[in-house]
Amino acid sequence: MLDQLQKHLDQVAEFTPENAAAVEEFRIQYLGKKGVLAALFADFKNIPNDQKKEYGQKLNELKERCAEKIEGFKSQASGQSAKLGSLGDLTRPGYPLPMGAIHPISEVKNRIVEIFSRIGFNVSEGPEMEDDWHNFTALNLPEYHPARDMQDTFFLQTDPDWMLRTHTSSVQVRYMETHQPPIRTISPGRVYRNEAISARSHCFFHQIEGLYIDKNVSFADLKQTLAYFTNALFGTSKIRMRPSYFPFTEPSAEVDVYWGLETETDYKMTKGTGWLEIMGCGMVDPEVLKNCGIDPEEYSGFAFGMGIDRIALLLHQISDIRLLSENDLRFLEQFQPRF
Ligand code: DAH
Q: Where are the beta strands (DSSP E) in the chain?
């Protein structure tokens, strides 16, 4: 028995582990529940009384040596990693870098801006807090005009002459006041209306306004420009213009693009007609030109306005407009670019 103990002591003294796995194996072999030490301790009762003292001492010594070996390896290993410095092991594979995503509204807005920039439109912007003149009066919507009711307005409590703009048409006014024709500009931005929030409408959304003023601009130019645009964005120039009314354009029209009726979603989105309404447009009313300091005898022009959110929902087949402003990462991450 004592011989056997001595043999183990010699083995432990010789053991030089190569790696952490070998140390773990060693630990289990000696110190594990069913390991060598447990067995030797269990044998203690079978040792003849006159050998018990020596056996006990050697057994404790073996236990200590085992613990020392393991400790020794551990401190050597941590010394090594300390030597690598703050950068750690430079050969390790890197952490994946999460890619940001472009919000669907920005993405669609950028596409529209790019399409119009190709035919000479620049980008202009105006304030979201607007006065009565720029949002309504200059656009042929004087006080008490019934069409004001079409746009449920958030007025500023402190001053009813100020409001959150209800459309980006206000930027038309600002642009014409500060620039003389030829004018070719589009104005993207956020607008606000006091509407109940639902899957289909929100109290704020985004529009892009377009304005083209020059000599001899005609309705045919408007139609051709819009056909070019729908072809670039939706892949079709099949559009129709339905007569409509806006106080700031005469004549006015609403534009539908032919979306198709191939899938069930197409049926739902187009209410079974295949046509989608995408914008309002018309020839700028001479009265509006006059209000903004442009001579209607000399110049004419067209304007149009479309909602970005609705187009983003269509192009990405998103069913609820509220998702666009909830900042839910599970939604936003789906728009990460794929490589
Ligand atoms: N401002 C209109 C709206 O918010 C959209 C619009 C219609 C803009 C016709 C225009 C236009 O420039 O000519 O509903």
A: 122-123, 129-131, 155-156, 159-164, 183-192, 204-214, 239-246, 249-258, 275-284, 300-307
